[in-house]
Amino acid sequence: MIPDEYKQLTEDEIKNRILDVKSKFGKRLVILGHHYQRDEVIELSDFQGDSYALCKNAAEQKEAEFIVFCGVHFMAEAADIISNPSQVVQIPDLTAGCPLADFADLTSVIQAWHDIDSICNTNSITPITYINSSADIKAFCGKHGGMVCTSSNAAATFNWAFKQSEQVFFLPDQHLGTNTGNKMSISANERIVWDPDQQLGGNTTDQIKRARLILWKGHCHVHTWFNLSHIQTVRSTYPEAKIIVHPECPEQVVNASDDNGSTSYIINYVRQAEAKSTIAVGTELNLVHRLDKKNPDKKIFPLARSMCPNMYKINLYNLCWTLDNLGKINIVQVPENIQKDALAALNQMLQIK
């Protein structure tokens, strides 16, 4: 619980306290802000980016003693894994989790791996996990010769995996996996979805043997909010508009859009669009509003209103409280027995663009 003294401060007062701490610590402190954060948090961050960019930023901050990650828990875990042992990683709210990451728990994944191994030798399968996953799932992939990917390099990661194995086991986002598979011309009958609550994931032995791509049943509620009716409304209201969405969206939404790509891809798409362009964006609301503000020569608006409540848990008040207690509260520390394999998977990710 944040002490009451913080709640009584005005926004200007809390900003000044944060700036004072930043000034006092200098390069000993770095604040990382994910693109889905509120504007006021982004403004006070030293680096802004998506999961991939911020993971790289964390790895590069050799002088920092304290890394404060304004994002969700799996991001802070990744920062702790990839940072030096002497560095302390903190998050302003430890309850800022990720429902997508929660779809894949280690016990269920190990059981699925054993089930698949009984049908197809897992020596011919490469496990890949989206960065939106827990540290122990990253470690599982690293231990079994796999790696972590982001939405930016998912296709390149799949290409890497298929060069060394016949099948890919991808978790935890079935939609990113499906849309990436489509880009690579992997047909629908060459992929299956693995539901951990069903025997053999809800698949037959023949389907498992035939599948080039085994997709874990999981999704991001922010991006599965978007549907075809949203696209139809934009098409009829703004016939001149381009629609771009994140590849975590369902397959039919991605296929009906003009383009799709990672958070960074979406930002660049908007920046590079011609003046007076009209663009509907299917991703987290805070980012879309910021894109509209930063591109006044264009009309940028959300495909539909969809906000990440966990990202929204981070605010100036718990950020200030954390900065006033560097190295003391809200520390994210991945156990040593997980770090080695998870680091191997993350380092492999950083090598693939």
Q: Would you give an account of this structure?
A:
With 353 residues, the protein is α/β, with parallel strands linked by helices. It has three domains: 4-97 and 311-339, Rossmann fold (3-Layer(aba) Sandwich); 101-219, Rossmann fold; 228-302, NadA-like (Rossmann fold). 44% of the residues lie in helices and 15% in strands. The chain has a five-stranded parallel beta sheet with strand order 6-5-7-9-8, with helices on both faces. β10 (242-245), α13 and β11 form a beta-alpha-beta unit. α4 packs parallel to α5 and α8 (135-143) crosses α17 (336-351).
| Overall morphology | globular
Q: Estimate percent helicity.
A: 40-55%
CATH class of the largest domain: Alpha Beta
**Main beta sheet strand tally, sense and closure:** 5 strands, parallel
Structural class: alpha/beta
Please, what is the average pLDDT? Answer: 96
Estimate the strand proportion.
15-25%
Q: What is the β-strand count?
A: 13
Uncertain parts? none
Number of helices: 17
| CATH structural fold name of the largest domain | Rossmann fold
What separation lies between the terminal Cα atoms? 40 Å
CATH superfamily of the largest domain: NadA-like
C-alpha Rg (nearest Å): 21 Å
In the CATH hierarchy, the architecture of the largest domain is 3-Layer(aba) Sandwich
Q: Helices and strands, in N-to-C order?
A: HHEHEHEHEHHEHEHEHEHEHEHEHEHEHH
Walk across the major sheet and give the strand order: 6-5-7-9-8
Number of domains: 3
